[in-house]
Please model this.
Amino acid sequence: MEGATLDHHVLDMPKPERYAHLLGTVHALVEGESDWLANLANVAAAVYAGVPGLNWAGFYLMRGGELVVGPFQGLPACVRIAVGRGVCGTAVGERATQVVPDVHAFPGHIACDPRSRSEIVVPIEVGGSVVAVLDLDSDRLGHFDDDDRRGLEALVRVVAPAIDWARAGSS
Model:
Protein backbone atom coordinates (compact mmCIF):
# COMPACT_ATOMS: atom_id res chain seq x y z
CA MET A 1 0.00 0.00 0.00
CA GLU A 2 1.60 3.24 -1.09
CA GLY A 3 1.59 6.09 1.38
CA ALA A 4 -0.33 4.28 4.14
CA THR A 5 -1.00 6.69 6.95
CA LEU A 6 -2.70 6.54 10.28
CA ASP A 7 -5.22 9.26 11.05
CA HIS A 8 -4.58 10.68 14.51
CA HIS A 9 -8.31 10.72 15.33
CA VAL A 10 -8.15 6.91 15.27
CA LEU A 11 -6.15 6.96 18.52
CA ASP A 12 -9.18 8.51 20.27
CA MET A 13 -11.57 5.73 19.15
CA PRO A 14 -12.72 2.98 21.52
CA LYS A 15 -10.37 -0.02 21.31
CA PRO A 16 -12.60 -2.29 19.19
CA GLU A 17 -13.06 0.45 16.56
CA ARG A 18 -9.35 1.32 16.68
CA TYR A 19 -8.41 -2.32 16.10
CA ALA A 20 -10.91 -2.60 13.22
CA HIS A 21 -9.24 0.39 11.60
CA LEU A 22 -5.76 -1.02 12.28
CA LEU A 23 -6.82 -4.35 10.81
CA GLY A 24 -7.87 -2.60 7.59
CA THR A 25 -4.56 -0.72 7.47
CA VAL A 26 -2.56 -3.91 7.99
CA HIS A 27 -4.56 -5.79 5.38
CA ALA A 28 -3.89 -3.01 2.87
CA LEU A 29 -0.17 -3.00 3.74
CA VAL A 30 0.37 -6.72 3.19
CA GLU A 31 -2.06 -7.28 0.33
CA GLY A 32 -0.14 -7.99 -2.85
CA GLU A 33 3.29 -7.68 -1.20
CA SER A 34 5.34 -10.87 -1.13
CA ASP A 35 8.43 -9.71 0.76
CA TRP A 36 8.23 -11.11 4.30
CA LEU A 37 10.64 -8.57 5.75
CA ALA A 38 8.82 -5.58 4.27
CA ASN A 39 5.47 -6.93 5.50
CA LEU A 40 6.62 -7.58 9.07
CA ALA A 41 8.40 -4.22 9.24
CA ASN A 42 5.33 -2.35 8.03
CA VAL A 43 3.02 -4.25 10.38
CA ALA A 44 5.30 -3.52 13.35
CA ALA A 45 5.31 0.18 12.42
CA ALA A 46 1.52 0.26 11.94
CA VAL A 47 0.92 -1.39 15.31
CA TYR A 48 3.39 0.92 17.07
CA ALA A 49 1.68 3.96 15.56
CA GLY A 50 -1.87 2.64 15.93
CA VAL A 51 -1.89 1.39 19.52
CA PRO A 52 -1.39 4.17 22.08
CA GLY A 53 0.88 3.73 25.08
CA LEU A 54 3.46 1.40 23.57
CA ASN A 55 7.19 1.53 24.10
CA TRP A 56 7.90 -1.57 21.95
CA ALA A 57 6.05 -3.45 19.21
CA GLY A 58 7.41 -6.14 16.97
CA PHE A 59 8.01 -9.73 16.09
CA TYR A 60 10.16 -12.58 17.28
CA LEU A 61 10.63 -15.38 14.73
CA MET A 62 11.14 -19.06 15.53
CA ARG A 63 14.59 -20.03 14.26
CA GLY A 64 16.42 -23.17 15.24
CA GLY A 65 14.01 -23.89 18.09
CA GLU A 66 14.27 -20.46 19.72
CA LEU A 67 12.81 -16.99 19.22
CA VAL A 68 15.02 -14.48 17.38
CA VAL A 69 14.16 -10.79 17.22
CA GLY A 70 12.59 -9.65 13.97
CA PRO A 71 11.27 -6.31 12.72
CA PHE A 72 10.21 -4.01 15.54
CA GLN A 73 9.73 -0.42 16.71
CA GLY A 74 11.28 0.73 19.99
CA LEU A 75 14.57 0.42 21.84
CA PRO A 76 16.99 -2.40 20.99
CA ALA A 77 15.66 -5.76 22.15
CA CYS A 78 16.86 -9.09 23.46
CA VAL A 79 18.10 -11.01 20.44
CA ARG A 80 17.26 -14.59 21.47
CA ILE A 81 14.61 -16.00 23.78
CA ALA A 82 14.25 -19.68 24.66
CA VAL A 83 10.86 -21.34 24.33
CA GLY A 84 9.23 -21.34 27.77
CA ARG A 85 11.27 -18.36 29.00
CA GLY A 86 9.77 -14.93 29.63
CA VAL A 87 6.42 -13.79 28.27
CA CYS A 88 7.33 -14.46 24.63
CA GLY A 89 8.70 -17.93 25.29
CA THR A 90 5.67 -18.75 27.44
CA ALA A 91 3.33 -17.73 24.61
CA VAL A 92 5.13 -20.20 22.34
CA GLY A 93 5.26 -22.96 24.94
CA GLU A 94 1.58 -22.62 25.83
CA ARG A 95 0.50 -21.72 22.27
CA ALA A 96 -1.70 -19.03 23.79
CA THR A 97 -1.83 -15.25 23.99
CA GLN A 98 -0.27 -13.90 27.16
CA VAL A 99 -1.77 -10.73 28.68
CA VAL A 100 0.50 -9.60 31.52
CA PRO A 101 -0.72 -6.58 33.54
CA ASP A 102 2.52 -6.32 35.56
CA VAL A 103 5.65 -7.81 33.99
CA HIS A 104 7.52 -7.56 37.31
CA ALA A 105 5.04 -10.06 38.79
CA PHE A 106 5.54 -12.51 35.86
CA PRO A 107 7.91 -15.34 36.82
CA GLY A 108 10.99 -15.27 34.60
CA HIS A 109 10.18 -11.98 32.88
CA ILE A 110 12.99 -10.83 30.59
CA ALA A 111 13.61 -7.10 31.00
CA CYS A 112 14.81 -5.90 27.59
CA ASP A 113 13.50 -2.38 28.23
CA PRO A 114 13.36 -1.39 31.91
CA ARG A 115 10.49 1.01 31.16
CA SER A 116 8.13 -1.88 30.30
CA ARG A 117 5.43 -2.48 32.89
CA SER A 118 2.84 -4.54 30.98
CA GLU A 119 3.00 -6.80 27.94
CA ILE A 120 0.89 -8.79 25.50
CA VAL A 121 2.29 -11.53 23.29
CA VAL A 122 0.30 -13.29 20.54
CA PRO A 123 1.69 -16.51 19.04
CA ILE A 124 1.49 -16.86 15.27
CA GLU A 125 0.68 -20.41 14.18
CA VAL A 126 0.95 -21.78 10.66
CA GLY A 127 0.35 -25.41 9.80
CA GLY A 128 0.06 -26.37 13.45
CA SER A 129 3.40 -24.85 14.47
CA VAL A 130 4.23 -21.55 16.13
CA VAL A 131 6.39 -19.65 13.63
CA ALA A 132 6.61 -16.29 15.43
CA VAL A 133 5.08 -14.05 18.08
CA LEU A 134 3.77 -10.50 18.01
CA ASP A 135 5.03 -8.74 21.14
CA LEU A 136 3.79 -5.39 22.51
CA ASP A 137 5.13 -3.66 25.62
CA SER A 138 3.80 -0.63 27.49
CA ASP A 139 5.30 1.53 30.20
CA ARG A 140 1.85 1.56 31.85
CA LEU A 141 0.66 -1.05 34.35
CA GLY A 142 -2.41 -2.99 33.22
CA HIS A 143 -2.37 -1.41 29.78
CA PHE A 144 -3.61 -4.47 27.85
CA ASP A 145 -7.00 -6.18 28.15
CA ASP A 146 -9.34 -8.54 26.29
CA ASP A 147 -10.05 -5.89 23.62
CA ASP A 148 -6.32 -5.83 22.86
CA ARG A 149 -6.17 -9.63 22.85
CA ARG A 150 -9.09 -9.93 20.43
CA GLY A 151 -7.80 -7.13 18.20
CA LEU A 152 -4.26 -8.46 18.02
CA GLU A 153 -5.35 -12.05 17.49
CA ALA A 154 -7.46 -10.85 14.53
CA LEU A 155 -4.47 -8.90 13.22
CA VAL A 156 -2.26 -12.01 13.43
CA ARG A 157 -4.86 -13.95 11.42
CA VAL A 158 -4.39 -11.38 8.62
CA VAL A 159 -0.59 -11.31 8.87
CA ALA A 160 0.08 -15.07 9.09
CA PRO A 161 -0.94 -16.01 5.54
CA ALA A 162 0.76 -12.92 4.07
CA ILE A 163 4.24 -14.04 5.16
CA ASP A 164 6.43 -16.64 3.47
CA TRP A 165 7.58 -18.15 6.77
CA ALA A 166 10.02 -20.52 5.08
CA ARG A 167 11.86 -17.55 3.56
CA ALA A 168 11.67 -15.74 6.90
CA GLY A 169 13.73 -18.61 8.30
CA SER A 170 11.06 -19.79 10.70
CA SER A 171 11.27 -23.39 11.71
Observations:
- The radius of gyration is 15 Å.
- The mean pLDDT is 92.
